[in-house]
Amino acid sequence: MAARVAAGTGGGGQIPLLDDLMPWSVRPLRPGRPWVTAPDASSLRARWDLLVGAEGVERDRLFLPSRSRTPLTPAAALPGRSTATSAFARDPGPYPEPVRILHGPFDEQWLIPDHRLLDAARPELWRVADGHQLFAVEHGFVPQDGGPALSATALLPDGHSPAGRPGRIRPLYRRPGGREPNLSPGLPALLTARYGEPVGAEAVLAWVLAAAIPAPGGPLVPLPADGGLWTEGVELGRELLRLHLRGARGGERPRLPGGRRPYVRAAIPPRPDGLRYEAAEEAVVLGEGRVSPVPAGAWDFRVNGVRMLELWFGRRTAAAEGLAAVGPRGWPQERTSELLELITVLALLAALRPRQQALWGRIAGAPALTREELHAAGILPVAASARRPASVLDHQEEGPEGQFALL
């Protein structure tokens, strides 16, 4: 893949950027305090109750104030949420039901959706997050990284980067209800005419998942001149997208073939003291617990050079302080189920890697649409309005201290 980046960026950098194709993007969320997210929802409720019951200096200590948020900071309710907007210290309000989020690539967690607790919640993402929305999440560029350039999710993503080099979050649609694709004006019509088949937003997202190349300035997305190659890439991308979504949008949850499905062979202890892989047995060992079969491709699946299984385990077993230390006393059954699903997803993604590498090889040697051609067709430069959030308000949103927000 690194060779393809070098080849693609030569000759004036004619491979289009993802930013050329999906122009509206949002920076990652910045919660500001680790205790507002957790692998399980029940921990968040326990943390909230402790904070509400604390007073004075103890409340400040637990809250972890920042320049953006303290217990005395009012904040507008997040779009679609009915949380209190007065300062937390004066009126905590009712407990906000947590929302499922994608905490970095492949890690589904929970978040307290209270704007008063989040340094930078990116309300523009919340306005368009609904049952029709999908998000492309860039992983950021790490030299010599052989992992994927981005993830896709139906959950609200926080954009966290395993290597600390976050990319951008790109909603597939600019308005709720799956309306107004976040594609450069004129791009669908150009691709439809070129490939001889309708090209919609999800087809573009599928192609991006299959073909995108990590690069320092953001993912590169080669566009083939050949319609057959486009169709092949979109078909592969749809398989990748199905795995990333894990059954969302009416799809089936990923499953490995019979005989290759991972099972718990020895019970995982309440506090496993480490994680390792036994290649000969295809087993992931968690303390005295054992899960197999786990294909080597799942164990070694990396993003930004970081093994996803090790990152997932570390987030759930690392020592924490303050409210972030409030969590399950043992190893919940739900956590085991999530581990088995993650292994399944990573194994299936790794199994598709040879097809993806073959596609990259064909793309590298085939004629392609260049940025120069996109300029000639009027697709580039992208209009400034396409890079800004669309006006999506069909109701008033409550601002700080109960006043209506002006947007």
What can you tell me about this protein's structure?
- There is one protein chain.
- It is built from 13 helices and 17 strands.
- The chain has 407 residues and is an alpha+beta fold.
- The protein has a domain at 2-253 and 378-400.
- Helix 7 (201-211) crosses helix 8 (227-245) and helix 8 packs antiparallel against helix 12 (353-364).
- The radius of gyration is 22 Å and the shape is globular.
- It starts with a helix and ends in a 31-residue tail after the last helix.
Supply database-style keywords.
407 residues, alpha+beta, four-stranded mixed sheet, globular
List the helices and strands and how they pair.
Blueprint: H1 2-9, H2 18-21, E1 37-38, H3 41-53, H4 56-63, E2 99-102, E3 108-111, H5 123-128, E4 135-138, E5 150-153, E6 156-157, E7 169-171, E8 173-175, E9 179-181, H6 187-195, H7 201-211, E10 223-224, H8 227-245, E11 263-266, E12 275-278, E13 283-286, E14 289-292, H9 296-299, E15 302-303, E16 306-307, H10 308-317, H11 333-351, H12 353-364, E17 368-369, H13 371-376
Parallel strand pairs: 2-6
Antiparallel strand pairs: 1-3, 2-3, 4-5, 4-7, 8-9, 10-17, 11-14, 12-13, 13-14, 15-16
